[in-house]
TrEMBL record:
<dbReference type="InterPro" id="IPR001721">
    <property type="entry name" value="TD_ACT-like"/>
</dbReference>
<dbReference type="InterPro" id="IPR036052">
    <property type="entry name" value="TrpB-like_PALP_sf"/>
</dbReference>
<keyword id="KW-0100">Branched-chain amino acid biosynthesis</keyword>
<comment type="function">
    <text>Catalyzes the anaerobic formation of alpha-ketobutyrate and ammonia from threonine in a two-step reaction. The first step involved a dehydration of threonine and a production of enamine intermediates (aminocrotonate), which tautomerizes to its imine form (iminobutyrate). Both intermediates are unstable and short-lived. The second step is the nonenzymatic hydrolysis of the enamine/imine intermediates to form 2-ketobutyrate and free ammonia. In the low water environment of the cell, the second step is accelerated by RidA.</text>
</comment>
<dbReference type="Pfam" id="PF00585">
    <property type="entry name" value="Thr_dehydrat_C"/>
</dbReference>
<keyword id="KW-0663">Pyridoxal phosphate</keyword>
<comment type="subunit">
    <text>Homotetramer.</text>
</comment>
<keyword id="KW-0456">Lyase</keyword>
<feature type="domain" description="ACT-like">
    <location>
        <begin position="329"/>
        <end position="401"/>
    </location>
</feature>
<protein>
    <recommendedName>
        <fullName>L-threonine dehydratase</fullName>
        <ecNumber>4.3.1.19</ecNumber>
    </recommendedName>
</protein>
<comment type="pathway">
    <text>Amino-acid biosynthesis; L-isoleucine biosynthesis; 2-oxobutanoate from L-threonine: step 1/1.</text>
</comment>
<keyword id="KW-0028">Amino-acid biosynthesis</keyword>
<dbReference type="Pfam" id="PF00291">
    <property type="entry name" value="PALP"/>
</dbReference>
<dbReference type="InterPro" id="IPR001926">
    <property type="entry name" value="TrpB-like_PALP"/>
</dbReference>
<dbReference type="InterPro" id="IPR005787">
    <property type="entry name" value="Thr_deHydtase_biosynth"/>
</dbReference>
<keyword id="KW-0677">Repeat</keyword>
<keyword id="KW-0412">Isoleucine biosynthesis</keyword>
Length: 504
């Protein structure tokens, strides 16, 4: 299979639509990490993503009869744009079925390249089901985003270019993983020609389907998939990609939302490119690899796989960047409620930069303050700040890794009820579409009272929502049964220390 895949890569037809992208040195990052860092710039493709390679190569293999009937795909992202451009180049009719929650910028980009857009359903599964119905009705040929050997061969030309552009020392290549088409193509080509080069997959912690498959020894379906890095939000690794590369990859690195955001900033500072979160995924993994292994003097390559991000999402990315670089600590500190306490606290902090300070009078004895403090990367300085405050007699909770605190609490300071009452608190991901809130409320029993609701738009397909509910005792043990019917992803936060300190 390896030799056959390499032959297909060598014969792949991609350059009628795609371009050979540069391997750009990351000078600032190289100095900081004490390794030579090179970024493969797939964000410079005509559709700002590598996906055009696989889509075009697959379409180039179709018969004239298949081309005459047209092609179809279900996609909300980069595959849709790649297929639209490939179809336009080949003069083939293309239909793209997209979920209704797809951002308008992506819908317009697909239409601008001549494809017909059909908006159907609120999630990818519904869009895919409708695409299959259209195939039955019209005989379209389905062009998969990753689970196809010709698509893999097209993506594998990225690896071919890397070896040609870096013929000297090359120690490791870091590849973002969604369905696995890109890493399968790169791993096959690189391991066949230069097996000493390590190939690492990089996945978001909440969509690590390749890691799960390798651990299980077979493909598995994740129960839930995070959508922050929507370009790699896949619940199961592709069958064909997994067969190609399961014995070729040297490992999988998983990264957090904050680490991805920090990598977006790193990419911008070295290349002035604004990567999408999944586009910066490989760089985040590279940085984590260097941190964990302590390697120096090596030549490391990462793939910037795309730059199709919504402008209004950049605010949220910027907010999380300092945390991803471990340059900010978020702390909950209890101080006495008396004159001079705030001044004394600031004196204890010293000359450090305070990035955020939230406080509101709560009672006559003490106050809980939400404070952000600038620290040095690595974690030791963050622990030193907390230890110094504890030594001064302040109770401290480190909330730096607390999602509830980062997403909601820092924007809700002072929101306490006048009298105590029992409530259940949950965090949800709501689809960004009209009617999502009403769908949620409709499924709740009529005697449940909404006591807290906080929503922020992050420029993604899903919004983050915090909900507090007064639930009658008889329903307390059945709350999540109602949520399962709604189908939105959720986390229980009633016992979260950030909620207990600032919102209860």
């Amino acid at each position: 299979m390896l030799e056959d895949t390499v032959k297909k890569i060598l014969k792949a037809r991609v350059y009628e639509a795609a371009r050979e992208t540069p391997l750009s040195p990351a000078h600032f990052l190289s100095r900081r990490l004490d390794n030579q860092i090179l970024i493969k710039r797939e964000d410079l493709q005509p559709v700002y993503s590598f996906k055009v390679r696989g889509a075009y190569n697959k379409m180039a293999q179709l018969s004239e009869a298949q081309k005459a009937k047209g092609v179809i795909a279900a996609s909300a992202g980069n595959h849709a744009q790649g297929l639209a451009l490939a179809a336009k180049q080949l003069g083939v009719k293309a239909v793209i079925v997209m979920p209704r929650i797809t951002p308008e910028i992506k819908v317009q980009a697909v239409r601008a390249r001549g494809a017909k857009v059909v908006l159907r359903g609120d999630a990818f599964g519904e869009a895919l089901a409708h695409a299959r119905e259209l195939i039955e009705a019209h005989g379209y040929t389905y062009i998969p985003p990753f689970d196809d050997i010709d698509v893999i061969a097209g993506q594998g030309t990225v690896g071919m270019e890397i070896l040609r552009q870096q013929p000297g020392r090359l120690d490791a290549i870091f590849v973002p993983v969604g369905g696995g088409g890109l890493i399968a193509g790169i791993a096959a080509y690189v391991k066949y020609l230069r097996p000493e080069i390590k190939v690492f997959g990089v996945e978001s912690e909440d969509s690590a389907c390749l890691k799960a498959a390798l651990e299980a020894g077979e493909r598995v379906v994740l129960e839930q998939v995070g959508v922050f890095a929507e370009g790699v939000a896949v619940a199961q690794i592709g069958e064909v990609p997994f067969a190609v590369m399961r014995d070729l990859v040297d490992g999988v690195i998983t990264v957090t939302t904050d680490e991805m955001c920090a990598a977006v900033k790193d990419t911008f500072e070295d290349t002035r490119a604004v990567a999408e979160t999944s586009g910066a995924l490989a760089l985040a993994g590279l940085k984590k690899y260097v941190q964990q292994t302590g390697v120096t003097g090596q030549t490391l390559v990462c793939i910037n796989s795309g730059a199709n991000t919504n402008f209004d999402r950049l605010q949220h990315i910027a907010e999380r960047t300092e945390l991803g670089e471990q340059r900010e600590a978020i702390l909950a500190v209890t101080i006495p409620e008396r004159p001079g306490s705030f001044k004394k606290f600031c004196r204890t902090i010293g000359k450090r930069m305070v990035t955020e300070f939230n406080y509101r009078y709560a009672d006559a004895d003490s106050a809980h303050i939400f404070v952000g403090v600038q620290v040095k990367p690595g974690g030791e300085d963050r622990r030193a700040v907390a230890d110094k405050l504890r030594e001064a007699g302040y109770p401290v909770e480190d909330l730096t890794d607390n999602e509830l605190a980062k997403l909601h609490i820092r924007h809700l300071g002072g929101g306490r009820p006048k009298e105590h009452f029992e409530e259940e608190v949950y965090r949800f991901e709501f689809p960004e579409r009209p009617g999502a809130l009403m769908n949620f409320l409709t499924h709740l029993p009529a005697d449940w009272n909404i006591s807290l609701f906080h929503y922020r738009n992050h420029g993604a397909a899903y919004g983050r929502v915090l909900v507090g509910m007064q639930v009658p005792n008889g329903d307390r043990y059945h709350v999540e049964e109602y949520f399962e019917k709604i189908g939105y992803r959720y986390w229980k936060e009633t016992e979260n220390v950030a909620y207990r300190l600032f919102m209860e």
